[in-house]
Amino acid sequence: MVIAEMFYTVKEIMNKKFIKVKASESIKEALNKMIDANKDEVLVVDSAGMLIGVFTRKDIAKIKKNKNISFQEEVIKYTNKNVVTIDMNASARVARNLMIENGIGRLPVIENKIIKGVITSNNIRDTFYLKIDEMFDLQNNIIDNLHEAVCICSDSGIVNYWNKSSEQLYGVRAENILGQYIGSFFPNALIMKTLKDGKRRDNEGNEPVKGKFVVLSTVPIFNNIGKLVAVVSTDRDVTEVVTLSKQLEKEKRKVELLQIAYKKEIAANYTFSSIVGKNKKIIEAIAMSQKVAQSSASILITGESGTGKEVFARSIHEASGRVGNFVAVNCSAIPENLIESEVFGYVEGAFTGAIRKGKMGKFEFASNGTLFLDEIGDMPMEMQVKLLRVLQDGIVYRVGSEKGVVTDTRIIAATNRNLNDLMKEKKFREDLYYRFAVVQIELPPLRQRKEDIKELADLFINQVANKENIDINSIDERIYPLLVNCKWEGNIRELKNVIQRMIVLSTEGKITLDTLPEYILENSEDKKKLALNTNESEILEQEQNKYDLAKIVESVEKNTIAEVLLSVGGNKQKAAKILNLKRSTLYYKLNQYGLLEKQS
């Protein structure tokens, strides 16, 4: 009965074919109408059609017993005026309860005091039986179209219901499992535990069959005396999710191991002990950096391009003990209209082209770590104002958002420009300068560190040789004085590039004078005497070889091929195209000049 009552209203099940009589009509007229319509009652109404009472066959039986009553009398005198009514929009359950509570077999249905129909016990019973199949079909259709697999077992574990999602999930057809013991198909089924202890289980993981992972809930069903009569199980397939989760866990572990290895590599390459130098200014810079590394003070590193400002910044970060990331931002390499979104981040829809869900800025990414702002002198004035605000209160606002994000980010700035001149020209804010320059570290150019050049060169030779997988057996000692006497406009970065060129152009593990760039040879004090301790015969031989056309062509050809290969990353097909050679010819020349081994 509950199912029908849940779905139906009085309006849907009431009988609209009812008999009504006016209050002034006689008992005989009311009886004749009842007989003609085969009804057990008539509804008595006033002249306006409003319900006054109900006159039933039972009332006629009472009249017959009293012989003093005439059937010509008005029916209203013997009508039951204490009438219980119900609204047409009420539920069938409410109608049933009213009839039971008042001990009546009929219930007039009214709307605005006007009679619209009658509910009888037969109406409720007949409606239920006539439409119960429709209800079950509806329920089955709903359950069969649920994404979850639904199984209903009796108290003895016999499967009574198995929906289509269950068939798809487990590959077991309903006709094969219905009426069978659930444990025969799924020995590990969680539903069996609930059958045993009667306890409800919600969203528990399980593996009913090997390789099939589900999240399921089991609900025990009890009758009105508390006896377990059935258990309902709903299962959701999470096999793909679990498999992906396991794969992600493996990949996450790999990433963690790589991060550990990367941090070890960074720590090894960017510590103060790895900074080479005997020069007094470099030693002072290292000492100052070590002293302030573990403080929260902002640091400004100045020096020409290529003097190692980022190396110092990373070394300070590694020695700081900060657990966050080291994040480098080159202020001159980012377009002016993008630098704010790059440093502070942005929210979804902040501007045309913004990626969905927005993007975290460098400031947030460096929280609990270090943000290295390189070439700070090239930062736009508008951005300087916003950066000053962040440095003052430690709160970052993403572009397009009014919600602030608190960060704990240590700032190290660097520049190769004269900030004092920029401040005079109103191109750099004084208040921002003093924020940055709490501690200022100046790095000298390489030309002022002549005593460090040989040691730096040897360091780079080892590093580059290992990276290029080239064994270096000997170095012409005449190279070192030439390196020391070079102007090094590009500083340490230029020196490292020169060393890389010398190694890739070396033959049979030997670094010779002809591997040096021409401009270093040209700038030497004595172009004819290429190095010290060279005897006269060697000088004479060099003078004679200087005009040997074959050797000149051979040297130019060898160097040109080596440089082209280096520029294309060793790709012989591209190199042959640039050199306008057939690949077979290129291979011949590589073999001829001993360059083939270095490219393999």
Automatic annotation (TrEMBL):
Q: Which GO terms describe its biological process?
A: regulation of DNA-templated transcription
| Superkingdom of origin organism | Bacteria
Q: Which GO terms describe its molecular function?
A: ATP binding; sequence-specific DNA binding
Q: Which PROSITE patterns match?
A: CBS (PS51371), PAS (PS50112), SIGMA54_INTERACT_1 (PS00675), SIGMA54_INTERACT_2 (PS00676), SIGMA54_INTERACT_4 (PS50045)
Q: What keyword terms does UniProt attach to this protein? A: ATP-binding, CBS domain, Nucleotide-binding, Transcription, Transcription regulation
In this protein, which residues make up the domain named PAS?
142-180
List the Pfam families hit by this protein, alphabetically.
AAA_lid_14, CBS, HTH_8, PAS_9, Sigma54_activat
Annotated InterPro entries? AAA+_ATPase, AAA_lid_NorR, CBS_dom, CBS_dom_sf, Homeodomain-like_sf, HTH_Fis, P-loop_NTPase, PAS
- Locate the CBS domain: which residues? 14-71, 79-134
Which positions fall inside the Sigma-54 factor interaction domain? 275-504
Against SMART domains, the record matches this protein to: AAA, CBS, PAS
What CDD domains does the record point to? AAA, CBS_pair_SF, PAS
Give coiled-coil spans as residue ranges: none
Q: What is this protein called?
A: Sigma-54-dependent Fis family transcriptional regulator
Organism, by scientific name, is: Clostridium tagluense
Lineage of this protein's species? Bacteria, Bacillati, Bacillota, Clostridia, Eubacteriales
